Amino acid sequence: MDPRTVRSQGGLRPQGVNWEQDEEAFSIDHHYISGPNGCEMDGSSGPSSSFRTAYVSVSRQLDTAAAFGNWMYEIRATPNMLDDRWPEPYPDGEVFALGGILWKQVRRYARILRFSDDSFNLTTWANNSDYDGRLYEDSHLAAKCHVSVKFPRALSWGEVGDAQAEWLRRPLFHTARSFVQDVAMDLVGTLPLKFGSYDVDYTIPGPSKEDASELEVTQKRVEHDLHRLGPGGEHSDVFIREGRESMRGLIKDGRMNEAGCATWLRPRGLMGKRAEEPQEQPKSDSCCKVAAAFRQKTRRAQQVREVFGLSLNEMRQLMAGEFDGLNCALLVARMKEKADPNRSPESKGVYIIDAPTEESNLRDCKWAQEMVTPKPIEAVFYAHHLWPAEAKLQGGFLPPDGTTAFSAYRTFGAAAKRAGAYPSKGTQGLAGVVYLVRATPNMLVTQMTVPMVVGGIVWKQVMGWVYVPHNYHPPKDDSMQEEPRKQVRYMELLNQLSQRDTTLFEHNPDYDSGLNNYTAHDEYVDFENKPVQLLRDFMDVNGGPIGWTGDFPLFKRPAHKPDAVPAVHKPSMLQRVRDILSGPWGSLLTWLTASAALVFPVLGEMVAADRILNAALQGGRVNLIHMLRYTMG
To answer: Rounded to two decimals, what is the model's pTM?
Structure first.
């Protein structure tokens, strides 16, 4: 895009009309795997494109930035530019400007002169007279002008967690807006950014007949991705399953081949062969769809390797239960090595294992499959100011008046912090209560939403509870902050706690064990600004286990306000709560997921450590695995 056009728009804006209203737009992962300029969506990157994103891609590398487009812009970095380095930095030095780039951030620009051999040169740089050097160079804020490598992880994968629990509606938008306000408001303003308006200045270079069109620029980016993918490309091993021969058809005479891409996209039949179709004109977006698939699979391959020590194809086979050809003793050794903080970097992938038998290999394969298979959400945590006797008299928990849903928590630490923020109750320094609640289908627990309870929680699905001291904050344990040390420290604390022969949650004698086989609804349902009737329809299908009768509220509150708070708790109970929550085990509980709590020695006897570790520490892994299902499908 030429400087005059960029200036007339106030800067470089995110793509898509009303992008700020699309939750998925705030995921860097979504931005990247949709292909260059989002062309995977519909083959277009213009005004008619259906692709929406909150980001503008920029690069740290001059050569990469100059490989596409007609103009080069040198931009002052600001903290709303995100450099996502997990599990590896994005290729070509790509970073992502959240909300876009203001024209006043552009220091200078130059035209890119491209030659027939794909080399390039730049014309003389022209300074931007609108650049705000006073703000970005001379003020005390200049020290804040940098790219952010630390930012909310929800913006990386679009993975909503307890940090977003205060925003039941549009959690990713509010996360992004809060982040920009905290770190970059003085430099770029609030999200969505306000792009300034400028009078037309014809001395600034405008469009030229020699310029490549937006479509041509996008195609150039696609071609770049396909070259990295094709035979000899740096990531071609990711597509070994598709066959190297079929990959050669993507590039013809050094250029992308739409017909070859269209063939590659055809569904595979038996023996992995592509389905034959009548001769037809290939679609103009075929190669972009291949490039988008390449981007997605390479990112997933990096993530799988970092988390599990497996290749994408090994993960695919395990999840599908296709164990033929797998040496699962070797896979288990690699997975366990990934979880060992004391592993030697010198191992270089050398493992000493016993020769597997058919029986032992099947056993190892099933263990590995268990570790990489997403588990349905069996329970959630809920924080409330009502104590158990009050909640029982009320019949459970209902949404605030005039609403139909409320948020819950995935981890104990976040729920306990919220419970401790309620006003002190009684005379013994206690505040709210954390409830462990059996998940039922009226609960939405998905990647893109805060855990949402539609209708309410009935008392019979409360499994247990723990009182939380006023102003409680989980203790910090630095060794629990980073993988894989977190896993080992978790097990150390778990063993110590189990040896105390104690419990944390008090058991609810009214719990209905008939709910044991239910889990949360695991599909994303967007109820934002939708008629209440849609929620009724949802509850008609999913509200049966909790007594849904066809309309809100789920149950009637008693006519008088419950008042059944015991005046004094037993000193032994208070001491037990404080010992566990404030001692070293408090940092362990910060990471405890509700599903892990079902097998944790707080409601019953100790069970296999593998099961506890898997349930408790899958956190970020679970959503990765869900995303892999779509990748591998």
So the answer is: 0.77
